[in-house]
Amino acid sequence: MIDGILTGLTTVILPFNLLMVVVGCFAGTFIGMLPGLGPISAVALMIPVTYGLDPASGIILMAGVYYGAVFGGSTSSILINAPGCSSTVVTAFDGYPLARKGQAGKALALAAYCSFTGGTIGAFFLLVAAPMLAKVSLSFQSADYFALMVLGLSAVAAFSGKGKVLKALVMTVIGLMLSTVGADRSSGVERFTFGSLELLDGVSFLLLAMATFALAEVMFSVLRREHTEEDPTADMSNLGSMKLTKEEVKEIAPTVGRSSVMGFLIGVLPGAGATIAAFLAYGFERNLAPLKEKLKFGQGSLRGLAAPESANNAASTGSFVPLLTLGIPGSGTTAIMLGALIAYGIQPGPRLFVDNPEVFWSVIISMYFGNLVLLVLNLPLIPYIAKLLVIPRPILIPMILFFSLTGVYLVSFNAFDIHMMVIVCAIAIGLRLLDFPMAPLLLGFILGGMLEDNLRRALLISDGTLEFMWERPITAVIMTLAFLALFSQPMISLAKRLMHMKEPSPKVADGE
Amino acid sequence: MALTKDRIGGLLFLALCIAYGFSAYQIPFYPGDEYEPFTSRTLPIILAVIGTGLSLALIFAKSEDQDDGPILPNFDWRTGGLMMLYMVGYGIILEWFGYTISTAIFLIAGFHLLGERRWTVLLGVSIPFVIGFWALLVYGLDIYLAPGELFQGE
User: For chain A, what is the radius of gyration of the CA atoms?
Assistant: First the structure.
């Protein structure tokens, strides 16, 4: 492991890669601060840039953008009560009240310290857990991979929230369907191309990510008339002191520790990402707090700010574990990174650890650096970065649209892609109006190819029977987990409904 | 049976699955493929079946959350639609005028659509930006940008 750390360190310490960490954190913070644009959009916008870099630098840049965007999201949550992404919604609960009390500086500093601690604890766990898991997963066979992918896809649906499981599953299937467009990887037969030459290579993953996230988000802000609203101008001249007292540090230290560990563990689970971690950590802390402290939650409690901030950063780090070791992304953002790695010709998964140790380790090491950069450089610069938010929306919106379009165009130099993006974006807007989540689509699309390859191999080996699903204990366990993830929620709600039938007091559960 | 968001989504998806399943059966076979356990058709057919099941579940299941049916939010559809059209137009003129000119036109049109009327801003932001970006692409990243078809004859 020492070898690995040194490999990672020598890669990251290259001046160019260090520059990528810094640039990534800055760009991510800026994009993350823009309301509506979260880490997924930020990372998607960066992909075209990374195509010109070597794999290690590219993935370092994207990782930097990722935590930069999470941090930027917290900043806009605290300053203007407009979370840049869903994982920082909870940050606004207590961060914004603190800013209203004139303690914006303290809130920002606390957010940065907690993000740093959460991220570092997460990175440490990653350092320990990832290589171990990678070693175990070297013994995995096609059937196990197939089972893992089914687990990943069903977990995303299971964690998508109450009443949305079916919709998330539908989106996953659409994603899988989209992945079958183009020439079949094994036989070369054309599938669903309808004679179009442009579709022969399949749907471009970058196009899909850009159109469903960056483009659709910005179009939503146009539709909501956000460009006509007065820009939310936070008073940047008076952020207040950025210092925390010793008592305050003592008060929040246990919270940060608990939330970081919890955040990391939740982040590792496929499908559950930073958002769920932040919500759970906040709820957990509130339940744990004594009554006097509990009343402060939502009014500007330091613990209430520390918990989600530590948890969401630790979870962002945790979501790299399944990506790096199994090649299965745990969240929308890591799904995009997986797509970018595949475009480089690198297959994340257990072999990554053996074949491209420099990529594997430099991601882990760059996490420390990224957290450090956020703390040392970004925090003091927040007032200045926040000034960029003053760019009027009528100028900013066409610019972001242009960057999204050009990012796809500069890869293919094909104007057909721009038209396709507009069509996909229109469909995405329609689906979002019908409350369909978009992340499962992307995940299904990215895992589709690998799922088919592994299913083919497993079926060929088992001679066409489905026995491979339970023949080996490990496959059986993973399949059972996938089954549980998929059916636990419907079964619980069915059980609840049956219980209500017996005792007619439906009001009790309505508050849930 | 009220037409809720779930049901509309379910119906659309059902139509998609039927069309997908139908074209899955049109995927050509190689000789001998019918004896193989896995062909190019296998996954598409599985997906079509799962998808049909899910869409039927979506249509007939009792919705868990409050779903009052599709309410078209009070959005600025006109501006949004025009912006989409501008993007399509950008894709078209890109072939004819080349990258720089069409990008400048797109940006100016976009700024104008969203309410920016000062010519100093319209031109003062877009043109330096385009020139800077062009220089970055051509000299910084060594990307070849083909001139538009209108200028290619010279």
Answer: 23
Report the predicted TM-score, pTM, of the whole model to 2 decimal places: 0.82
Sign for the CA dihedral angle at A313, A314, A315, A321 comes to positive
Contact B76 A180 (CB under 8 A): no
pLDDT values of chain A reduced to their tens digit, one per residue, 512 residues: 778 788 888 888 889 988 988 889 888 888 888 766 778 888 888 887 887 788 888 888 888 888 888 888 888 888 877 776 777 888 888 888 888 888 888 888 888 888 888 888 888 888 888 888 878 878 888 898 888 888 888 877 777 766 688 888 999 999 999 999 998 888 888 898 888 888 888 888 888 888 888 888 889 889 988 777 765 555 555 677 777 888 888 888 999 999 999 999 888 876 667 778 888 898 888 888 888 888 888 888 888 899 999 998 888 888 888 888 888 776 778 888 888 888 787 877 777 877 888 788 887 788 778 888 888 877 787 777 777 667 788 888 898 899 889 888 887 888 889 999 999 999 999 998 888 888 889 888 888 888 999 999 999 888 888 888 888 898 999 899 888 888 877 777 778 777 776 554 433 333 22
Same domain, B83 and B55: no
Spacing of C-alpha A210 from chain mean position: 15
Residue A191 carries which DSSP code? E
Q: Are residues B56 and B93 in the same domain?
A: no
- Helices B77-97 and A216-223 cross at an angle (nearest 10°) of 130
In a domain, B68, yes or no: no
Count CB neighbours of A171 within 10 A.
29
In whole angstroms, what is the distance from residue A307 CA to residue A91 CA?
9
Indicate whether B46 and B100 sit together in one domain: no
CA–CA separation, A449 and A39 (whole Å):
24
Q: Is the same domain home to B11 and B49?
A: yes
Indicate whether B50 and B83 sit together in one domain: no
- The domain containing residue B138 runs over which residues? 77-152
Is residue A468 within 8 Å of residue A475, measured between CB atoms? yes
- The total domain count for chain B is 2
Q: Verify whether the Cβ–Cβ distance A163 to B64 is below 8 Å.
A: yes
User: Looking at chain B, which residue has its C-alpha nearest residue A436?
Assistant: B9
Between the alpha carbon of residue B121 and those of residues A4, A153, B125, the distances in Å are 52, 47, 6
Integer-rounded Cα Rg, in Å, for chain B is 25
CA of residue A364 relative to chain centroid, distance: 16
- Cβ atoms within 10 Å, residue A230: 6
Does B146 lie in the same domain as B81? yes
Question: Among the three residues B33, B60, B87, which one is the final residue of a domain in this structure?
Answer: B60
Contact B146/A405, CB-based, under 8 Å?
no
B67 occurs within a structural domain: no
Residue in B28, B76, B137 closest to A189 by CB: B28
Task: Name residues whose C-beta falls within 8 Å of residue A3's C-beta, 6 or more positions apart in sequence.
Answer: none
Q: Which residue from A minimizes the CA distance to B66?
A: A163
Interface ipTM: 0.91
CA distance A183 to A372: 45
Q: CB-CB: which of B43, B106, B141 is closest to A402?
A: B106
